[in-house]
Amino acid sequence: MTKLFRFLTIVAVAALAVSCGDRETRRTDGDSQIMVAAANPHAAEAGMAVLRAGGSAIDAAVAIQTVLGLVEPQSSGPAGGAFLLYYDAASRRVEAYDGREMAPRATRPDHFLGPDGTPRAFADVVAGGQSVGVPGVMAMLEMAHTRHGTLPWSDLFEHAIALAKEGFAVSPRFRFFMDFAPWTQAMPGPQAYFSDENGNLLDAGERLRNPAYADSMRRLAREGAGVMYEGALAEAIVEAVANAPVNPGAMTLEDLAAYRPLERSPLCRPYRDYFVCGMPPPTSGGVVVLQILGLLEGFDLSVMEPGGAAFVHLLSQASRLAYADRDMYLADPDYVAVPAEGLLSPNYLYGRTQLIDVNRDMGRAEAGDPWSDEALPRAPDLTEDVPGTSHFAVVDAAGNAVTMTTTVESVFGSNVMAGGMFLNNQLTDFSFEPQRGGHPVANAPAPGKRPRSSMAPIMVFDAEGELFALVGSAGGSRIPLYVVQAVIALVDWDMTMQEALDLPHFGNRNGATELETGTELEALVPALEALGHPVRTTVMNSGTHGIRIHEGRMDGGADLRREGVVLPE
Fold it and tell me: Strand, coil or helix: what is 355?
């Protein structure tokens, strides 16, 4: 991505973030029995309607996702991917569902190399068919619904179908990205969809209809998720990828037919008197969040100021170490050996903690060696009790819960449309370099492989094993930073969910320490620089949503940087 494009992104999204920050968001704290927190009011209302009808959290998730793909297509959609954690209240079991996209069989390690053998620029490959992965979210939701749904699958698409047919008012955020997305103007599908009969882009508040999306949702409702992988809709996806006006791709019907969602074992680790569960690879989000929490557990964060230099310094040091390991080791575990257990072992984390100097930034961190802990120092017992993306959280009347992060990757994904849906550009989450320093890169492209993600849906349980919080975020590779800050705010500072999500963002991805522009954190620049930090202020436009269950009462939070709401009942 060029420096000019990065600059324009920062300026434009900063303006949007300010406008959204003035919006009133519903904050809840009461005797609610059901709750939805989602990034768009239409989607939240669809989920709540399903819950009112006696639906489960999984039922609501299907309705929410299908509406998000219509009203917030710049972030997620049925032709994208997702990771979902489900809590079954009756069995007290956490299940992890992987709906990550897969690379077509024609994908090779040099997928994003130019004729000269060097990586192409992100901005040159994001749009078009070459970046599209085989979609996974609907197959994943169908798998989860088969196990935990209570309403018929066909009943869960009614809101999406009605909105697509009758139209909905374009939101300010949607309108902003119509104009701003740098690839949209060159793509005939989005241009026609976003324009009126005179060829002018619709304004915020004007009605947008998508009859092709309504037809796709009817097919999904009637025939199941299989229509994404075989039949007329699958053929439309393959044709759109092959005939993209830029960067045509080589996806086939065989690639679609070969897709399978997966149930994986969740990663769960103690933090203080709580227990935190996240998704395993191919997303890096769960490992990074749990690593950062493990690295910080030996420090008393409760006495630190949430926006103070001491806390920002400590979290930045832990983040450096976690992101160094992420970049070295985390990828699709079906293709490379991923030492997730080693990265989260108490002895390994204790050894890594010794690299943190409370008085000095460590500089660029190197990855550790998590393969064997025989030579590592023994960790002391720190706790006694062990019990372009969108995110939403749901709790149903039976106490079952969903925390799900869903994405098409970039703004409007690949900007290729099929069946009224935006196709993802998820393959750009692979490393563009297949080798580094003469060694294979773990996250290099390969046929059938799932690209590494940063999505981090998280569940937190209290010392008695009761569900305490659901949280997750949008935000690309910064997602784990947003999520871990929310978990710390909930656990160490006893904040409500909305208070936790209102905190300004910061973090370090093993480079500069980043502070959210326009917030009080900018005042920390001199203090952090005195500690040796390279510092930059930037837009950190998250999309964090969550629900907290505290002392028998639920309170929800919606990120003020977006258009989300919390609906209780």
Answer: coil
Q: Across-strand partners of 360?
A: 357
How far apart, in whole angstroms, are the C-alpha atoms of residue 338 and residue 284? Answer: 11
Written as six digits, the tokens of 17 are 């973030």
Q: In 3D, which of 164, 467, 452 has the Cα closest to residue 334?
A: 452
Q: What is the tens place of the pLDDT at every residue in 257-295?
A: 999 999 999 999 999 999 999 999 999 999 999 999 999
In order of 25, 106, 136, 289, 458, the CA distances from 455 in angstroms are 24, 26, 14, 10, 10
Interval 162-215: pLDDT, tens:
999 999 999 999 999 988 766 776 788 898 999 999 989 999 999 999 999 999
* Catalytic-residue membership of 118: no
508 backbone dihedrals φ, ψ, rounded to 5°: -140, 125
Q: If we measure between CA atoms, which residue out of 218, 148, 23 comes closest to residue 404?
A: 148
Instruction: Give me the catalytic one of 107, 389, 407, 538.
Output: 389
User: What is each CA distance from 494 to 395, 486, 549, in whole angstroms?
Assistant: 21, 11, 12
Select from 242, 274, 230 the least CA-distant residue to 462: 274
